[in-house]
Structures are given as C-alpha cells and as structure tokens.
Specification:
The chain has a two-stranded antiparallel sheet with strand order 1-2. The chain has one domain. The chain is 46% helix and 10% strand. β1 and β2 form a beta hairpin. The protein is flat, with a radius of gyration of 13 Å. The chain is mainly alpha-helical and 68 residues long.
C-alpha cells in the first residue's frame, strides 16, 4: 500500500476545492485543480478521465492509474 503524499500547497488546494464545492449546482470538485463536476456529471469514470488529463495531478499517480 502506498503512502498518501500531499502537495506543499495543500492548504491552498483544499481551500480552493471547498470554495468551489459550496457553489450552487456543484456536486464534486477535483482537489488538484479545482475542476467542478456539476450534479449528474460525476462518476468514477469521469473522475479517472479528468485526473489523467489534469495538469496538476502527479505524473507518478497517472502512471499507476494507467497500469491498473
């Protein structure tokens, strides 16, 4: 099992994600870039697709996702 590694600016990212999450109609938010998923848009598949394209998501995590 791998360790969870938080970015150095995790407080900023968490604040941005929570700020986006309380907006009307938003059901989920990407912790890494703040991307908002509207109600009905979020699913594990859309999350995976987004994370593979997310410029702020760590490359080693993307590599592990592709290997699975």
């Amino acid at each position: 099992m791998s360790r969870i590694r938080l970015p150095k600016d995790w407080k900023h990212r968490a604040t941005r994600a929570l700020t986006n999450l309380i907006k009307p109609g938003v059901a989920a938010v990407c912790f890494w870039c703040g991307h908002q998923y509207r109600r009905g848009e979020y699913s594990p598949e859309t999350q995976s697709a987004h994370l593979l394209q997310c410029s702020e998501y760590p490359q080693d995590a993307k590599r592990r996702m592709r290997e699975q």
